[in-house]
Amino acid sequence: MNALNCLLPTMIIICCLMPGPHNCVALPRKTSCHVHDSIADCSHLSLSAVPQNLPSNIISLDLSHNRLKSIPPVSLSPYPGLCRLSVSHNSITKLDPGLCQALPLLQTLNMGHNQVHVLKKEDVNHCTNLTWLIMASNKLKLQGEPFSALQRLQVLDVSLNKLQSAKLGTQIQLPNLVSLNLALNDFTTLMKDDFLFLNNSSSLLVLNMSCVPLKTLESGSFKPISGLRTLIMDGSNMDTQGFSELCSELSATTIEALYLRKMKLAKLTNATFKALQNTNLTYLDMSHNDMVNIENGSFLWLSRLQTLVLSDNKIKQLNKNTFQGLKSLKKLQMTKAFVKKDAPTIGHFSFQPLSALESLILQRTAAQEITEHTFTGLTSLKELDMSWSSYSSLRNINSKTLVSLAGSPLRRLNLTGTAIAQIDPQSFSVLRNLTTLLLDYNFIKQILTGKEFEGLDQVEEIYMSNNQQTVHLKSTSFVNVPNLRVLTLRKSLTAEAVNLDPSPFSPLTNLTFLDLSNNNIANIREDMLKGLANLKVLKLQHNNIARLWKSANLGGPVLFLKHTPRLVTLQMDSNGLDEIPAEALRGLGNLRNLNLSSNLFNRLKDTIFDDLDSLRVLNLQKNLITAVRPEVFKTPLANLSLLVMDKNPFDCTCETMLWFVTWLNETNMTHVPGLRDQYLCNTPLAYFNRSIMEFDPLSCKDMTPFQTLYILSSTAVVMLMVTAFVVRYQGWRILFYWNILINRTLGFSDAHVAEGWEFKYDAYIIHAEQDSSWVERRLSPLENDKCKFCLEDRDALPGMSQPASILDNMKKSRKILFVVTETLLRDPWCTRFIAQHAIHRDIEANRDSVILVFLQDVHDYKLSRSLYLRRGMLRPCCILDWPVHKERVPAFHQKLLMALGMTNRLMD
Ligand SMILES: *[C@@H]1O[C@H](CO)[C@@H](O)[C@H](O)[C@H]1NC(C)=O
Ligand SMILES: *[C@@H]1O[C@H](CO)[C@@H](O)[C@H](O)[C@H]1NC(C)=O
Ligand SMILES: *[C@@H]1O[C@H](CO)[C@@H](O)[C@H](O)[C@H]1NC(C)=O
Ligand SMILES: *[C@@H]1O[C@H](CO)[C@@H](O)[C@H](O)[C@H]1NC(C)=O
Ligand SMILES: *[C@@H]1O[C@H](CO)[C@@H](O)[C@H](O)[C@H]1NC(C)=O
Ligand SMILES: *[C@@H]1O[C@H](CO)[C@@H](O)[C@H](O)[C@H]1NC(C)=O
Ligand SMILES: *[C@@H]1O[C@H](CO)[C@@H](O)[C@H](O)[C@H]1NC(C)=O
Ligand SMILES: *[C@@H]1O[C@H](CO)[C@@H](O)[C@H](O)[C@H]1NC(C)=O
Prior knowledge:
One of its GO terms (cellular component) is plasma membrane. GO terms for molecular function: signaling receptor activity. This protein is of the alpha/beta class. The chain contains 17 helices and 47 strands.
């Protein structure tokens, strides 16, 4: 039973290291030795011989977990520089005498877990440089003085060898031995002369006799090793009598640390440690002993003890005499030392003798109550850890609960997981020196008014996470803890707890770490972090603040980060965010770590990250990002050491992915985990579900000629369209200038021609098609010998193109008469081409030859737009209105004739 207890951990380890399909640890199977820095690892390769092809300069060779049956020295002769050799977990039956001759520099040799049987002096005679020899778990049968040549040996492990005696030799030997492991052997008696062979080993400090079924200890058996400092007796089956004998044997040593775990020491009496009273014992571990009873005065003798471990026992009660005498004790570790089902009691003043105690660990313990004297007398206590304990007094902490700590300079109080439901005002007010208060994993359900923390002026860290989201805040919640640097409220607050004005955090000017994650917070005020200029870490993940950053948010996006310019870490993952306002991350030049994963980001605005030039870690995993564009990502990716952006539906086209893929390929300082198999293209179909790294950048380069072609052809189309439009709307102008050009080059100008021209017509009539009837009815009758009009329809020159004919006729006319109607102004051909020529002729020839006859009232603006004429440009007599009243028609005719009869020369 006992041996099984001891072996179990060993067996688990063995199982974990064993090769094969039942391997507990998922190691990648290697197929050959790994060599790195002169160290060769040939473990787990099913080798049956030493590989001969390794570099000859290796200094360390691991051949463990193979199928070696022997190690012939010649097989190691290629590696004469070996200092370390492990052949553990093989089936070697013999240590070859030539081994150390072949390896003169060998210092450490591990032959554990083999079948070595007989070991003789000759086998290790040449191993004089050996400092470390592991022969654990063999079938050692020692013959003669096998270790006597090992003058430099410091560590010798012969555990688990079924040795029948601790006597490893008769001669005095091993002068430099520091640690001897005799654990898991079968001897039941320690004889007086068993350790005599170590008589000169003044450096021996550690002796391990765990799981040795010692029954008898002869007096004086530890005398040869009286320089011992550490003795490990875990799992040894000793009765109270035997243990007392052990203590008396140790009384003559310089023992400092005793490991007495799993020894079934159910009871300590006031005599148990008596023999140790003159030793310098400073460390005593008695955990896992199922200890029930500690008699009063049991530790009276251990006045120099500094650390006492009593974890995992079943202690029934503590009283004011239990720890008597432990006046140097600094640390008392009592995790699970008394458990609820044993209904333990902690009496008044139980810890009073421990005036030097600095750390009291009562993790996972249980007791009825904490009274006003439970911790009295702990005048040096700095740390009290009661986490995951069950004390009914802690359910509702009030100003009396912890009053017994009033005399302690307590700095750290750990009340994690102690089922606290309510904290009354001034509960901690006696803890004036407290800097750290841990209240995680409780059931605190109340409004924090601030009075709860009264007196905690020195407190710098309050941890209050995982409190069932039932903590309400007020603006005053933290007014009494102005020095707070760390505040965690993860999964503790109600959804509206921080939506207060002024913000509950406003008194905390020194705050550097604020955790508000997992609270379903939906409303944050822009001023929530105002005044927190020192804030470095802000955790807001797993809330519901998507609305705050939407541009559609009433009153605009809430830019709550504008008050925290020193932010180094920002976590906002899992918030349903789909927008980052352009200004949201402005000024965060110190930000190194940004986590925005598991949101709904798709298209991010340009330049939102441009101020983040210190960014080292960026996490955008699990969003809806399709494109990684340089406009957004160039700055934040510039100095990154870790990028996590997998599980996005990437669009693998040249426009969206080329830049990113090129960057990924070129970057040599950014670690991108899972790049090959977690960054997959979603679109286009050709790349669906393939790694973005399979996206071929060359396909974009091949596009270049096509792109040029595309640009050229689109340009051509655009130009064609422009030309068409120009021709459609400005064609007249082109024709106009063309005609002028032709006329000029042919050598005559209008003016020149005009000088001696016999005008064939008195006026050239320009009118809209619809107005021909008016012209016919009203103007044609005016024609006679002295007055002749030119009407294009009638007088066009045969055999000439229309424009040429128009120009020719115009030249032959003294005046040009526009019959102005809306229709005329709308006819582009008529107005633009003809009018332009007319006006051009008018200006060029310096003549005053235009007459306007308005049949309708036309706005001057329209006139100027269509005919490039304004009424004011002409003499008043050249502007005529067709009269509405019939009786005025003769007057109109008169005016018209006058206008026609006027000389064309302005100078005349
Ligand atoms: C022990 O190692 C030293 C170098 O550290 C070497 O010079 C010496 O020869 C070795 N001794 C033996 C017996 O091989
Ligand atoms: C205990 O320690 C003191 C000082 O460290 C030393 O002088 C004394 O010899 C030690 N006693 C024993 C029994 O080791
Ligand atoms: C140890 O306990 C016994 C009774 O159990 C008592 O008679 C004796 O005085 C105690 N010794 C010391 C040193 O306290
Ligand atoms: C408080 O107790 C918890 C739970 O035992 C532990 O994980 C944590 O490290 C302790 N914290 C401190 C500061 O001692
Ligand atoms: C604890 O606080 C008191 C004043 O409140 C101070 O005098 C004392 O030095 C502090 N002790 C420690 C260990 O900080
Ligand atoms: C904040 O920290 C500074 C410097 O560490 C300190 O002087 C100051 O007292 C602290 N407390 C407050 C409330 O500012
Ligand atoms: C990555 O770079 C190498 C050369 O530096 C080049 O051969 C390869 O095509 C590039 N791959 C991608 C995906 O850009
Ligand atoms: C990374 O590559 C750049 C050139 O692309 C080079 O200047 C720089 O030294 C490299 N850095 C490391 C750590 O290899």
